[in-house]
Amino acid sequence: MLIAGPDTRVVELRVHGVQGTTPQTLVDAVAAVDVAGDGLGRIVRPADRLRRPAPGPVLQTEGRPIPRVVEGYLWGGMTSGGVAKATWALLFPFSIANVAHWMLPPVPERNLPAHLLGIGLRSLLRVFALLLTALLVAQISVVSLDLLAAQCLRPGTACLTSIPADVRTFPWFRTFLGLLPIVVVIAVMRRVSHVEWRIERKAIADAEEQEKQPASGLPGAHVATDPDTPALRSLHVVTALAVTALIALGGPLKQLTASGGMGVAITVAWIVSLVFIGVSVLGALLLDDPTGGAPHRGGRWLRAALGRKPRRLLLVFSVLLVLTTLGLQEQLPLRVPGADVTVQVVALLMAFVLVLFGLMLIPAALLARGTWKSLPRELRPWAGGWFSAPVLAIAGLLGGGFGAGVALPVRKALGDGLRLPAGYEYITLLWGVAGALALLSTFAVASFTGAVRWRAFRKGKVWAREASLLHSGRMRDLRTATRAWWWARWERNHGHHMILIVASVLVVGAVLATVLRVQNVPLGSWAVFSAFGVFVLGLLAVSLLRAVYLAARQPESGRRLGIIADIAQFWPREAHPIVPPCYALKVVPELVARVQDHLRDPGTRVVLCGHSQGSLLVAVAAARLLEELPAHDRERIGLLTAGSQLQWAYPRAFPAVVPHASLARLAGGLDGRWRALCRGTDPLGGAVTTWRRQVFDGMLLGVGYREDGSEGALAPALRGPTGALVLGGDHWLPDPQRGPFPGRRWRSGVSAHSDYTSDPEWDRAVAIAAGLLQVDAPESPSLPFARKPETRSRDVLGGS
């Protein structure tokens, strides 16, 4: 531990979690002012009455008070705020498919079968994502080309009577009106995929050079931009334009018929559309070739074929193909059969790819099992490393559901006389069966959970023995805390089970609907489920569109809608390029640059503090700092996480990106300066550096990371001056707090996942992370209580 000198100061750099926050809340002040940043990534400090940056409260250590500067990094503007970012929620299925890529199991070194399986899985993910884009375009075509242009606007109908008959019969009018919304949506998707965050204080060339370095084994080492993203983006746009032309020309199975030169032109355009789609699928399959970067191997031909100029030519030819299709369709037919056929063909191809992906994922997960089989069960990846398959299934079924959910209200608004494709009846059946199964599953889970909880409390079983240590002598708080611990533990232990249930329910509905569709079974006996499916799909689409509308009118609603983006947008574009930009690629380099700026002062020590999702950002930033800083500077950085998912969620959902071994290496590199604030009442955050905890003879014991980087049994937990129990790097906070304490901000009741900075243990953890205080130092006097603790003896539940 470095000795504090007279010029020592601590910079506490805080990073918030999902949903964003206000600058004042982040730095715990009544006013805050920007001191750096570009408006999207804002660095703020507390402000005085003249709006000038003010110093933070001093940090009390065993020796003397140390000056402290409190800063906060605000990144919420990258994921929420304004209708443009709110509409990103419409790309939610694309984002889920992209997240599924990062959930793949790790590939063991020097294992050829695992390496080949990894290449195949990533290629299938890219093809599935490409089909997801094609499905969206096909479903928009059902609404725009079929319902609106072909049926509603055909001459002689009573739909949209404000449009005169002469206009309806005008050449190319209906075709143009039907193709225009599709092309606009494709242009918007292409625009979204081009959005990138500009990194402040970090040269792009330096960042790209760093990404070429071999992986360090620290958390987030693989979170980097993919050089294949521009090529993949072009393939998706080409596919979308080619599918648009293919639908207008009759569909993938049969082209429109015409005589003479018109028939030849339609045939040529139809073949060109199929060729463009085939080239895009082939490119998506081969882009993940790891040998492509070597100039002496075959992959260089693929990189050259998908270079900037070839991509532009491909896009130009695709646009010309759509314009040619418009010229060939002087008058649309009464129906557009290609839309229904394309939706069904794409859906079947997606199902085939998903099944193949799930089957290949089984041996890949088994081969990767050696990397985690020595870990306790509670630290192993969810579903044995197979979690990516159900997440990908949810992405595909939600993508189909969103499109059908929009088509149903549009048909209702235009008129009941319009007809949707026959395949949509089976989509409504899918969601009707899934909705019914979801209700039954919810009832079963709720009943079972309630029965287990009632039985446990009736028998007086203590679910949270740690709470009895934290609230010793305060039986009223113990009763409240015990119930909150039970629910929080249930949510952490079974949250991924709920995702598996959702995926299973949707897959069962999809299988049933597919079987009935293939066998052409009439849906008369399934009418109840189809009607319920219409209600579920309508509710799904209306709720999503209403949320986007409210986001435009009420900024607070837009911030709440950003929860989805906050979680999904952490991951760079890999499987699907048409997703919002990854904010981690901006936040992490800017945090690293800010810390390096502070460390230029030799007396400064920096503690990175992250809450919830922010804990992942600061952990990745700390890992980058350990890679870049010299040894004498690494000793002046610390890490503080609060309400973190760095043990129970991220290593288990993303075992290849945030594996347990990388966290152990990070803890060893920080040499005991990683502190984690935990509450047993927090359903979203939990322990980070310890596991297998138990209470024995009035002591809290456990296994975790040691200061030397090893793992093993830890010394019994020590009690802090404010009642917190410190086991290894975890600080277990009493919730409700043991205060109030005079001179400190007070929060009553159960805090759960919020307001960790209100606990006085926060300052002590910052001092330890800064290397100014030892955990096992002689215990300082306890802070005075404003109210005395209860001393009457009661049982765990608070009974007399």
TrEMBL record:
Region (Disordered): 779-800
Compositionally biased residues, Basic and acidic residues: 787-800
Transmembrane listed as a keyword: yes
Residue ranges crossing the lipid bilayer per the database entry: 124-150, 170-189, 235-253, 265-287, 313-329, 341-368, 389-408, 428-452, 498-516, 528-552
Source species, domain of life: Bacteria
Key words of the record: Membrane, Transmembrane, Transmembrane helix
Stated name of the protein: Lipase (Class 3)
